[in-house]
Structures are given as structure tokens and as C-alpha cells.
Design goal:
Blueprint lengths: L5 E3 L3 H10 L6 E6 H6 L1 H8 L3 E5 L8 H13 L7 E6 L1 H13 L5 E6 L2 H7 L4 E6 L2 E8 L4 E4 L9 H18 L1 H8 L8 H18 L14 H12 L8 H19 L4 H15 L6 H11 L5 E2 L2 E9 L2 E9 H12 L2
Helix pairs in contact: 1-3, 6-7, 6-9, 7-8, 7-9, 7-11, 10-11, 10-13, 11-12, 11-14, 13-14
The protein binds nicotinamide-adenine-dinucleotide (NAD).
Length: about 350
Amino acid sequence: MLPEEIEISQNISVNIQAFFNASDYDKVAVLVDENTRLHCLPLVHKVIKPTDIIEIESGEEKKTLDTCVRIWRELTDNHYERKSLLVNLGGGVIGDMGGFCAATYKRGIDFVNIPTTLLSQVDASIGGKLGIDFLGFKNHIGTFELPRKVFIDTKFLKTLPERELRSGFAEVIKHCLIADKDYWKIISDVDFKDQNWPDIVNHSVEVKNKVVEEDPFEKGRRKILNFGHTIGHAIESYFLQMDEQRLLHGEAIAAGMICETYLSGKFCNLPESSVKSIENYITETFGRIRISLEDIEEITKLCLQDKKNVKGIINFSLLKEIGNSVFNVGIEQNEIREVLQLYARP
Ligand SMILES: NC(=O)c1ccc[n+]([C@@H]2O[C@H](COP(=O)([O-])OP(=O)(O)OC[C@H]3O[C@@H](n4cnc5c(N)ncnc54)[C@H](O)[C@@H]3O)[C@@H](O)[C@H]2O)c1
């Protein structure tokens, strides 16, 4: 069961229309980037009838305070008040930053998410985490606030570049591994290109939403969503500094999930057959990132900066079995170095 604010449909226009019929916003701004303005806005423009369109440049490097200032300025110049609405039409960058701007503008105006990437449909638009990057730290400034509605429709995925689609698929894999063994069997029997996206999005949203509902502010069980992300984020941050080898979020998380699967085998008795099947499917789908010995040292150091690090022991979310996960498993730095070496072996 999904909460009232999340609506998944193969024709969201009807739902959007019903939402606007039942509300009385004085102004509606739609936040887009150049890609979602071109590919996604035409699919919903007629039903939203925006008062203003705010366009920002696409990309993680634009998820900054400077861009927020531009958004707040446009809202201010166009006299947006507490009864106005911001619609975030785009991927996780638009959703995280637009939500943050709305939640803080005049102490909060309503916002609606229309996620247009696989990653934002199955992950970023659910759960109320909003924010921006600051001084090179990801999601460093932010807050929790739920959108009034999330309208999800997989038709947006048709124009999404394949590399972006694959990146979002990493979070789908994660949801199966932490919470649903049967669904893991379904997806891991099928090549990435032949997946049933409407089914997958439904399933993933249900998994994430259930976990979030149990623990909205990540005091406990919500931490299982971090499977693959402790080492994955360190890999992502490390390669972020190297312009020639930029990684997408899901590509780094895929590598992180392989490393953390090795840790699960060693520290949580995840059976060897499961370790192998996870490693093989993720490698077939994403390939392997080339990581040198020097990279391994730097990535290991970056893991120590993780928010879940206490006195040099890093807390991981790991798998006991496929579909059964645990959190707060304390692991020492040298073990991280070892699994990165295993990942990097030829
Ligand atoms: N809030 C959360 O819980 C949460 C969870 C996971 C990730 N995130 C955040 O999400 C962000 C990544 O999101 P993302 O992967 O969606 O990246 P993104 O928002 O940068 O979008 C990826 C690219 O796809 C383009 N695009 C979007 N929709 C399109 C479409 N339908 N057709 C063609 N092009 C399209 C965008 O313009 C962009 O160039 C990161 O900032 C990450 O921190 C947040």
C-alpha cells in the first residue's frame, strides 16, 4: 500500500488534472532543466498550465546554493506566496534541490514531484530527504519534508539515456537484495535491457516506502537502504575529483554493492552461492570499474569520512541472506581495503 501522496500510473495526466481540480493554488511554477524542458514538459504542460517555468542547468555540479538563490529569486520576483506551488519535473537533482527551495521559501510552500529518471522514480522522490551539495560534500545542507504529491509514470524513461537508466537500476537491485528475495530472482533472470519497467518501479517504490514509513528519520531500520552506499559513496566522491573518469551515482553504488556483498559473506554469513550470484549479475550489468592500488588507499580513507563512522569503526548495512538485511555492523578500515582489493583483482 502506498501513501496518499504517491501516485503511480501509466497516464499521470489524469491524476495531475484531478489534483489541480481539487486545489486552489494562486501560482504554479515548474522547475526543469534543459533536458526535462525538452523531453518531459510537453507531456504534462497542458494539465499543469504553469504560471512560470524556472529552468536551471542540468547536472550534479549545479545542485548548489547558487542555484537555490536563482530559484528563490525567481519565486520572489514573481510574487510567490504561501498559497503557491512548485512542481519539480526532473531527476534527483531537480527533486532534491527544488524540494529544498520550496521547503525553505517563506518557511515552506507546497511542492509536487514528477520524477523523470529511473533513479528519482524508485528512490530520490520517495522519503522526503531534500538538499544540496556544499563545499564539495554531497547533500551537506538539507532537510526532511514530504511533497504534497509524487506522480510517477514510466513513459518519461523512453527519452532517458541508457547510461542514466542503468544507473537507476542499481537502486532497484539494492531494494531486492535488502528486502525481497523473490523479486531478486525475477530481475536477475532477465537482462537489464529486457526488464519490465512499470512493474519494477511499482515494486521498488513499495519497498522504499515501507522502510521509510517504519523509520522516517533514519534512527534505525531505514539504514538498510544504505547497503552498497558506504563504499559506493566513497568511490563516487573519489572519482568525482577526476574529470576524465566521472561516474554516475548508480555505477558507484553497483561497485559498492559488490564490495559490501563480500563483507556480508565474511561478517554476516551470507552464503557463498549468494555472494557469487550477486557479484556475477552486477558485474554482467555494470562491468567493473578499474581501480588501482593507489585508488584503493584513497577510497579506504574516504570511507572514514562516512557519517556512520564512530572512532575508526565504520557502520555498514549488510545482507544476512538475499532479501534479509541488517544494519550497524561495525567494520574496521583494513577489511574495507581487503574487499576493494578483491573487487579490483583482474
Ligand atoms: N533524496 C533522496 O532520497 C535521494 C536518493 C538517491 C539519490 N538522490 C540524489 O539524486 C541525484 C541523482 O539523480 P538522477 O540520477 O535522477 O540525476 P539527474 O537529476 O542529474 O538526472 C540525470 C540526467 O538525466 C536528464 N533527464 C532527466 N529526465 C530525463 C528524461 N526523462 N529524458 C531525458 N533526459 C532526462 C537530466 O537532465 C540529467 O542530465 C543526486 O543528486 C543524488 O544525491 C537523492
